[in-house]
Design goal:
By secondary structure, the protein is mainly alpha-helical. It contains two helices and two strands. This is Helix-turn-helix conjugative transposon-like domain-containing protein.
C-alpha cells in the first residue's frame, strides 16, 4: 500500500493545490480514497470473462 502512495505522491500533491498552495485536507482525502480503492481490488481471483 505504501508503494502505491509513494508512486502517486507527486500526482496527489500537484492536483491537491488550491490557489497555488497544497491543501492538506484535499491531499488527505485523495490518499484515503486511494487506500479505500486498494481494498476493493482483488488479486486472488481471475477477472470475469463476460
Amino acid at each position: 500500500m505504501n508503494a502505491v502512495l509513494l508512486h502517486y505522491a507527486g500526482y496527489i500533491r500537484y492536483f491537491s493545490k488550491v490557489n497555488g498552495q497544497v491543501n492538506a485536507e484535499v491531499e488527505d482525502y485523495v490518499k484515503q480514497r486511494l487506500i479505500d480503492c486498494q481494498f476493493k481490488f482483488r488479486l486472488d481471483e481471475p477477472p470475469d470473462k463476460s
